[in-house]
């Protein structure tokens, strides 16, 4: 046994006290040691006599005085003064003592009163007075409370004042001889041996009686040993403690490299170790009881007033066993767990009825959480992640490029979030540190966040451990850091300006710019796509900026605006690959991640396409108005012109309503919401959420989500029909104007050769267009999004299509809509 | 490269409403009466270059050509604080100064004589613009200069600039009171023919309705020209708001006009405006919603055209564009439209899709008004044909009696015959017919049944 354990020290103390004539020595030593143990295990040593340390000191001095040892009394005074002084410069001692000593010293210093009391009684009681009042409690077992290093609580706990057995009565008449017949019947082994074996077994050591079973990791009664059934049961029940101990000890001793287990698990092992050393102390006490017993029986006095019996053992180990059971259960549950998850598992043991056990768990938990607490504080207030073994609930993905720091670099390991945190709390901690990281790494702002240090001090003052974390401070830190970050983004990086720019350019809000761009790029984009276009288009973009109101836009915005030509595939025209681009970097790049930009690009394509249709339709109308004047004399074409005019009206109506819907109902309305949300945003997350919501709303309402795929195809069909119509009108006009010129020049008329085919084509395209529109409207009317139903209503505001198509009028009834909300009937073309 | 618009102001009326229009534009764009940009006008959200060009950094000049055959109105302008606003080279006053004597024929032949001088100015102005989109003509159809010279100009412009749009703000005479111009029906009809054939979009400003609005709504007992013209300039400025304050849509004239005009003939637009107030009157305290604005725009008493009450109830809207200026919540638009649809506040054509388009436009930050939201309606409504039918009636009355034709016979066009008058009558009759046809669901086949009725009649003068 370690020299510095309590029993060893007590023994040493007693030996030094009883130094004298050798014959008397052993006896005196024995008595003193016994007394010391009795005193130690006694519950209220001093409750009647000594209330304070001071009174004990006075008593000691008085005792010395009565024995006329004034010299010693003075020396005691001096020593006592040094002892009390040493508490204050306790820290210095740390440098001189090894860990065990330090621990012991601390417990002595902390329990100075108890130690002094022990001394006093040892001195007061003459060897023969062992059965005096103090001894009344001599067999009281170290209570659960005494497991704690704090013996003052032991003194105060009124717990074990009631002794289940009076030592004087119990087993007082049993006589021992081997082989013995006990209460329980015939036994091969003497009780003494058995008891010793049991004590060994308590430490997981096999011997004559018990055998180690490696497969079940348990101690078994050797098959050669015959015990009466009742005794056997009792013995086995006792030995269970050894098994529990073994389990706990095994966990503590199992080789632990930090990289596999982490700091929390090591702290857990250390806490268990502490518990185990208390257990060793119990064993020492039991051992000494045994020795007393053996000594007595050696004298063959035959009366067992003291010492160890099965029953006593059973009673004394009852509570330690409960503790050990708890520890074993903890060990079992915590197997393979680490970090925050380990804390969670342990915490789940806190919620139990037994207040004592609860304290034990809490004590362990506090220790386990200590490394996590350090990590949390460091992360929350400095944005530093010092977590070499991945135990914290925030992880870092170092492979992520700085652009996506906010979204991807740091992630929450949900399994590592201690279960005594709410999700919100975990999130707040995560975001606080992330905000600081963002400021440091992305905004390159190393200046301290105003107010955060003060909050940290408050937090550290108010929280002792992770369990009693001052959430108020954490919350304050969260809002301080996020608000500061948001402010930096708004003030220094002009987030709103850039979001606005995205809306103005990528979402086509800047009308004159968009119109002008359309006009300028049209001749280029009509050509087959190739990647070399981009330089020319970029110069067009510049020109376009210069001569529209965009020239007054922020220089930073214009610098970022660019064209993008995506990789063309076979047969693509310029329209298929062209989009506007908005270059972002630094903190902006974190909000407008490549993923977000792709979504903007998708939106651009849809809006741009709609705009282009509107543009083409306007051009066709322009042609009808202006060039149409020249055709007035050409009577033959008037009919087909009239048809073309009305079909175009229909198409213009569609294109206008669609553009209007996209720009007002979709973009403008969602933007309105976003603006409000931006104004009210307090944190970066709120800003991101608002923006995400904006994008989602716009995407789904613009028919760009998965649900609207079929409708989108129909919209494409409508657009195709428009483009085809555009070609037909071009042909009609060029042929008709040629005809006019021929007639003026009196050349031969060719009108009859082209007119029928154009008429036929016009009829065909008109029919196919109508069909597409009606199916489109039908699909909109049964769409789940009321906004898209609204679009259907707008496109057929005067119910013109509804009159033509019975499907539509039916689809507007409620019962029908209910029927078809979830499934589209298959579409016919 | 804006889509520039050149404004031609013809005759007394044209110059008067033009004058008010430029006054208004200057105020809205923060340009002083001398064409200098005011210090406060730094916002840069407007496009001044559609209607103005820049002489230098600070100095803006209207793209306007002022033409008249008599000096009175132009002299008034030249004596006003706005004298220095215009390019003096763009002001053309006939040297004879005799005017057209309220005779369409006289105005028209003046045009023929002055062709070179006038088109020198117009060509120069056109060359000065990068991307000229349209000509806007301001005139009245009843007098001599605006109608006769205007008609001549319309014909020549559509020949000379075949790819440019021609839009007019045409003031129709007040039919509620007897006019001192007895040949008004002749003038009107002859002008109407050119408006039908040579213009792409005519905004009808009906003096009858304007006077009614001034007396009934603004409580002015005898409205002055200035007061009426102020109403007109409000409409003109509001109808160009989307060109001058670009936002999502309708940022060029074709984009504005294309959805409003179903076929090239049916291009006569009515206007409505709300709130109608004068300087002495405060608007109601109640907060104006988008729905309020749109509903009021559909009320006949706010329309600037006095149509004959529709007995059969068959007349209908072909298209509507509401330009709403001021602080508007875009989320309210759809709701308002739905309410209007549910209550069937507007009746639309039966033969094709039609709806109310809404354009939101900024309001000038430099002009304070007592109302937060204002709305202009540009509408194509078939009942506008009743206005033409009335003109036809009056024409027929005079023509039957061969009254007051002597003055016309003096002019070259009518020396040999009055065919031009009858031809004009055919054009207008066919226009009225087409509007009537457009109220019926078989309008789609209308062109087939009457092949080139309109074209035939127009060929004689084409």
From TrEMBL, chain B:
Cell compartment(s), UniProt: Cytoplasm, Cytoskeleton, Microtubule organizing center
Record GO cellular component, one term: centrosome
Gene3D superfamilies: Helix hairpin bin, Tubulin/FtsZ, C-terminal domain, Tubulin/FtsZ, GTPase domain
Keywords of the record: Cytoplasm, Cytoskeleton, GTP-binding, Microtubule, Nucleotide-binding
Family (UniProt): Belongs to the tubulin family.
Quaternary structure (record): Interacts with Ote.
Job of this protein: Tubulin is the major constituent of microtubules, protein filaments consisting of alpha- and beta-tubulin heterodimers. Gamma-tubulin is a key component of the gamma-tubulin ring complex (gTuRC) which mediates microtubule nucleation. The gTuRC regulates the minus-end nucleation of alpha-beta tubulin heterodimers that grow into microtubule protafilaments, a critical step in centrosome duplication and spindle formation.
Listed name of the protein: Tubulin gamma chain
Protein species of origin: Daphnia pulex
């Amino acid at each position: 046994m370690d020299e510095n354990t309590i029993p060893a020290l007590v023994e040493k103390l007693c030996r030094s006290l009883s130094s004298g004539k050798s014959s008397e020595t052993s006896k005196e030593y024995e008595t003193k040691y016994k007394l010391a143990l009795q005193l130690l295990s006694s519950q209220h040593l001093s409750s009647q006599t000594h209330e304070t340390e001071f009174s004990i000191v006075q008593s000691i001095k008085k005792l010395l005085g009565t024995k006329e040892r004034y010299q010693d009394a003075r020396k005691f005074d001096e020593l006592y003064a040094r002892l009390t002084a040493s508490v204050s410069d306790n820290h210095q001692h740390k440098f001189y003592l090894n860990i065990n000593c330090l621990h012991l010293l601390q417990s002595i210093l902390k329990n100075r009163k108890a130690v002094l009391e022990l001394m006093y009684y040892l001195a007061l009681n003459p060897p023969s007075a062992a059965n005096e009042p103090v001894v009344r409690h001599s067999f009281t077992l170290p209570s659960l409370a005494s497991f704690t290093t704090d013996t003052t609580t032991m003194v105060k706990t009124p717990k074990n004042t009631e002794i289940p057995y009076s030592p004087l009565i119990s087993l007082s008449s049993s006589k021992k001889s081997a082989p013995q017949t006990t209460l329980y019947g015939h036994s091969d082994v003497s009780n003494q041996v058995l008891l010793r074996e049991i004590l060994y077994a308590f430490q997981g050591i096999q011997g004559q009686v018990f055998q180690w079973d490696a497969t079940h990791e348990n101690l078994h009664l050797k098959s050669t040993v015959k015990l009466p059934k009742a005794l056997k049961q009792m013995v086995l029940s006792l030995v269970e403690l050894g098994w529990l101990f073994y389990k706990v000890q095994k966990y503590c001793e199992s080789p632990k490299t930090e990289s596999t287990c982490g700091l929390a698990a090591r702290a857990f092992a250390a806490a268990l170790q502490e518990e185990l050393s208390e257990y060793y102390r119990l064993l020492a006490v039991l051992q000494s009881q045994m020795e007393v017993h053996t000594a007595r029986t050696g004298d063959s006095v035959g009366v067992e007033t003291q010492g160890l019996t099965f029953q006593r053992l059973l009673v004394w180990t009852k509570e330690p066993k409960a503790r050990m059971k708890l520890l074993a259960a903890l060990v079992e549950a915590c197997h393979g767990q680490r970090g925050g998850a380990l804390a969670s598992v342990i915490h789940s043991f806190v919620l139990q009825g037994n207040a004592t056990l609860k304290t034990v768990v809490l004590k362990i938990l506090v220790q386990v959480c200590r490394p996590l607490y350090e990590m949390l504080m460091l992360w929350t207030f400095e944005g530093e992640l010092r977590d070499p073994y991945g135990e914290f609930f925030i992880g870092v993905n170092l492979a992520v490029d700085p652009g996506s720091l906010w979204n991807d670099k740091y992630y929450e390991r949900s399994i590592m979030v201690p279960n005594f945190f709410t999700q919100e709390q975990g999130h707040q901690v995560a975001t606080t540190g992330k905000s600081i990281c963002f400021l440091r790494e992305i905004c390159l702002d190393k200046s301290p966040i105003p107010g955060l240090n003060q909050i940290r001090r408050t937090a550290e003052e108010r929280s002792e451990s992770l369990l009693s974390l001052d959430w108020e401070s954490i919350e304050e830190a969260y809002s301080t850091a996020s608000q500061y970050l948001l402010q930096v983004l708004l003030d220094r990086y002009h987030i709103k300006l850039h979001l606005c720019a995205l809306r103005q350019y990528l979402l086509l809000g800047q009308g004159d710019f968009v119109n002008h761009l359309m006009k300028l790029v049209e001749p280029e984009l009509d050509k087959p796509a190739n990647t070399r276009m981009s330089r020319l288009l970029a110069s067009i973009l510049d020109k376009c900026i210069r001569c529209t109101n965009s020239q007054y836009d922020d220089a930073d915005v214009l610098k970022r605006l660019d064209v993008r030509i995506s990789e063309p595939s076979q047969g693509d025209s310029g329209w298929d690959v062209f989009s506007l681009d908005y270059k972002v970097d630094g903190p902006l790049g974190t909000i407008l991640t490549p993923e977000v930009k792709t979504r903007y690009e998708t939106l651009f394509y849809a809006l741009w396409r709609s705009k282009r249709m509107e543009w083409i339709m306007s051009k066709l109308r322009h042609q009808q108005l202006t060039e149409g004047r020249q055709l007035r004399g050409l009577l033959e074409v008037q009919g087909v012109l009239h048809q073309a005019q009305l079909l175009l009206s229909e198409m213009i109506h569609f294109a206008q309503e669609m553009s209007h819907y996209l720009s007002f109902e979709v973009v403008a309305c969602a933007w309105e919401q976003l603006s409000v949300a931006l104004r009210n945003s307090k944190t970066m997350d709120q800003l991101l959420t608002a923006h995400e919501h904006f994008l989602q709303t716009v995407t789904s309402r613009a028919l760009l989500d998965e649900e609207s795929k079929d409708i989108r195809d129909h919209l494409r069909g409508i657009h195709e029909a428009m483009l085809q119509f555009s070609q037909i009108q071009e042909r009609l006009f060029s042929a008709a104007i040629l005809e006019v010129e021929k007639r003026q020049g009196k050349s031969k008329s060719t009108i009859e050769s082209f007119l029928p085919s154009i008429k036929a084509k016009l009829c065909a395209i008109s029919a196919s267009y109508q069909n597409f529109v009606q199916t489109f409207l039908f699909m909109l009317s049964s769409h789940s999004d009321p906004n898209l139903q609204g679009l259907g209503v707008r496109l057929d505001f005067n119910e013109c299509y509804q009159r033509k198509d019975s499907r539509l009028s039916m689809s507007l009834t409620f019962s029908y809509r209910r029927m078809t909300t979830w499934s589209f009937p298959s579409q016919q073309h | 490269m804006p889509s520039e618009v050149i404004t031609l102001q013809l005759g007394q009326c044209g110059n008067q409403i033009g004058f008010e229009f430029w006054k208004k534009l200057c105020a809205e764009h923060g340009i002083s009466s001398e064409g200098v940009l005011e210090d406060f006008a730094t916002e840069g959200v407007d496009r001044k270059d559609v209607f103005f060009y820049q002489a230098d950094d600070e100095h803006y000049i209207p793209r306007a050509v002022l033409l008249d055959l008599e000096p009175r109105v132009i002299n008034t302008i030249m004596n006003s604080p706005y004298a220095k606003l215009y390019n003096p080279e763009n002001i053309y006053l006939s040297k004879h100064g005799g005017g057209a004597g309220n005779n369409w024929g006289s105005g028209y032949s003046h045009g023929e004589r002055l062709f070179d001088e006038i088109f020198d100015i117009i060509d120069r102005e056109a060359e000065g613009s990068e991307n000229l989109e349209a000509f806007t003509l301001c005139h009245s159809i009843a007098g001599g200069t605006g109608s006769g010279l205007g008609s001549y100009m319309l014909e020549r412009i559509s020949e000379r600039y075949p790819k440019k749009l021609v839009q007019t703000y045409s003031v129709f005479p007040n039919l509620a009171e007897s006019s001192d111009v007895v040949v008004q029906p002749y003038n009107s009809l002859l002008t109407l023919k050119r408006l039908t054939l040579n213009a792409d979009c005519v905004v009808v400003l009906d003096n009858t309705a304007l006077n009614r609005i001034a007396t009934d709504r603004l409580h002015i007992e005898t409205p002055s020209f200035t007061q009426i013209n102020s109403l007109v300039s409000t409409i003109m400025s509001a109808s160009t708001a989307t060109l001058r304050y670009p936002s999502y849509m309708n940022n060029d004239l074709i984009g504005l006009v294309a959805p409003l005009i179903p076929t090239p003939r049916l291009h006569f637009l009515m206007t409505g405006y709300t709130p109608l107030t004068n300087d002495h009157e405060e608007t109601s305290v109640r907060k104006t919603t988008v729905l309020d604005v749109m509903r009021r725009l559909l009320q006949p008493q706010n329309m600037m055209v006095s149509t004959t009450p529709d007995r059969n109830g068959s007349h209908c809207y072909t298209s509507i564009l509401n330009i709403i200026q001021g602080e508007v919540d875009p989320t309210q638009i759809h709701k308002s439209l739905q309410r209007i649809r549910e209550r069937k506040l507007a009746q639309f054509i039966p033969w094709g899709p039609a709806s109310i388009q809404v354009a939101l436009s900024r309001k000038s930050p430099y002009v304070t008004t007592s109302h937060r939201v204002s709305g202009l309606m540009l509408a194509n409504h078939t009942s506008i044909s009743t206005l033409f039918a009335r003109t036809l009636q009056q024409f027929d009355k005079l023509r039957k009696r061969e009254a007051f034709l002597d003055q016309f016979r003096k002019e070259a066009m009518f020396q040999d015959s009055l065919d031009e008058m009858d031809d004009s009558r055919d054009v207008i009759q066919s226009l009225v017919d087409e509007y009537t046809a457009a109220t019926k669901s078989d309008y789609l086949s209308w062109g087939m049944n009457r092949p080139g009725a309109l074209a035939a009649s127009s060929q004689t003068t084409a």
